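User: Predict the complex.
Assistant: Input components as received:
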Amino acid sequence: MKKRLFSIYSVIAVLLVGIVFAGMSCKKFSDITEGTKLIVDFSLIETSIDVRVFDAKTGNLIGQDGDGNVSIRITGADKDGVVDATGLQPENQQYTTQKGMLGLGLNPASEYTPSQMRRVSFNIVAHADGYLSTSQHVSISATGKNFVRINMVALDNPPEGVTVVREENVGTLVGGQIEEPLLIVTPGGKAELTIPAGVLMKDADGTLLQGNLDVLLVHFDNAVEEALAAFPGGLMTNATTLDGNSTDGMFFSAGFVAIEIKDANDRQAKTFEGGTLGLLAEVSPETYNPFAQRNVAAGDEVPFWSYDENTGSWTEEGNYTVTNNAGVFELSAEISHLSYFNFDWFWTEFCYYGVDFEFVVQGEICDCFPLQGIMRRQSDNAFIAWVEMWVCQGEPVHTFFAPANMPVYIEWLDNLNPTISVDAQYQPTYIEDLCEDITVTVYLTAIPYGTTVTAEVEVYCPSDPDFIIRPNFGVWYHKSGDINNWRYAEMVNGFAEICGVELGETYYFFAYYDGNYYYEPFTVTEANYEYVGFELPAEVCDEVFGM
Amino acid sequence: MKQIYPVFIAGVMMLFCGLQMHAQEFSSETSTPTKESSFGMAIGLKSSSFGFGGEIVAAVSPRINLRLGATYMRLAFAYQDEGFALDGDNKILLGSVSLIADWQFHKNAYLCAGVLHSMNSLTLTGVSTRTFTIGAITVDPEKVGSLTYDIKADMPVSPYLGFGLGRNITKDGVVGFAIEGGVVYQGSPKVNLIGTGMISPTASEQQRQILEDNVADVKFYPMLSAQLTFRIF
């Protein structure tokens, strides 16, 4: 009996164990990940630089109507660290704006990761047909989002304070030498260029110019804000001083002159022999001498600088003395090469990492938003720079490359976000020293406006459907029929939140990619959009995602 | 750890009750000694599919033994996950605290049942093996990030049913030996998923749920053990 019982129990037990092992063997560990996907937050670019190029007179983005683009070249110490918004780097660092906009970024490699100990600096040099070439010096000391605004002067429609004269088919060059003297004067007599007879003119390759000349002379009045805001190279810039040192700093401008001379063969004069050209520029009595801490006076010494439009950097040529000619202050200089020239005091007290701004938003606000302003000196209310900050609730906004020991104020603009206004007591915001180790607090108020729209995006490449990409990019957009009021939104990890959208309205969205752009209308009819499971074209996968 | 305490407390109480009961029997036995005592106690060394450990065995009647045991073992091994394209060092933790009753229905065979707190977990941590080159940017695996998923039993206390050959406490001698097989019902395992770097969105709740569904059928865990015991009285 006992034996039989034993046998029954044994069989039951063995069966139980067998069933369990059989069940487990059906589910191998290798099957654990079946059905899952590798989802990637495609945030390659940790530091972005959104560039917008405006016509200084009209305030419109150059080419916004598809009528021309701006050629952008990156120069300077860290030019190799600059890539486009998708991580691509064209040959010779030559980019082209689309609708006046260009998305750039820094290579996230450690040697180009900006920090307080490692600033990354470069120049953005802009050329466009019919416009005076210009540049903007950029210095970044922390990762994050950056905005650069460049104003360009249209030669046939300059902004206030900029006068342009074009003399065509003047003078005669024989054997490279001009036979008779020439005098070119801008409208209003703000600047004069004298070309004495006998001067030999050569282009950059050393070839002699021949025949008649076309002469362009442009003068920027430093007392007019529109002119200062379009100052080629910007006022916060990099310059090489007489002792050969290259340094960053800020110009206190006493005037700017651009000269261009071409012969009948379109050769551009670069150097002169057998004499020098005479440049005479009127100096506004409102010009502030920062070292004397008063307005300009006769006898003041003013450094004279030339501009390399290819690199966007300035070189000190010498010092000239302000004279008083019948009540008009003037500066005159002798020049032996052609370039842009300016009479400026160079303020070398600056910091690469200045004050932090803290923005406190009263009321409900969605996501981050750009806040734009104009920074001016307190001493003479002169324009210093455009300010564009990317404001995220609770996060400080850093200041890079700021003048030290110079009281300034920022007048905030609200054109980039209809859902935000700056509280009156902070308009403008005064800062005694941008290089102090302080936090500047600015209170904002959220304005109820429109609807907050969210969008979620997941895409994949046909070569690997189990590899899901959640994109990161910035997008400019404007309401249909309101192209001058661009707003900005950001998609992070495949998710975007856009404030102040009017449901039922059509918006145009613009995104830049590898020299191409997408500018498409979209009528917003709901508050939440989900684009999950989108297959990307194979060529996009190859170029952008390396798949 | 809180989950272990009830098992320990229950075990200690049961052993204590068993000792008390036997003490009464033993005192009566001292007055009229018999050859076969129903009480005995042993300690054992155990190797099992829950790791290595030991047990305290109490024979509370001629056919019933109570066992309180614990086991533990860590294993590390290289693992490659083709699904996630991950490489990494991974760990298996095996461990249990158990309270089991044996019914010695035959001199060399027994059925056993009890409860067990399983500490078993499978932790897989890896970094991506993918390197991306996009234009001027090279994204190395470290920036791509890491993914960790661990799978462990969800039930704090699991029932156990098994069958053994041999004896967990020898009847007459000192050394006993038993081998045992059985199953532990652990319920569907729970999965935790943690991602860092660019692949951190992989650790979404949706993905975690997929992983959990994939292992949902693994509700039983096999118990295989061999035990050497030493009767101490």
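The radius of gyration of chain A is 30 Å.
Let me know if you want any component modeled separately.
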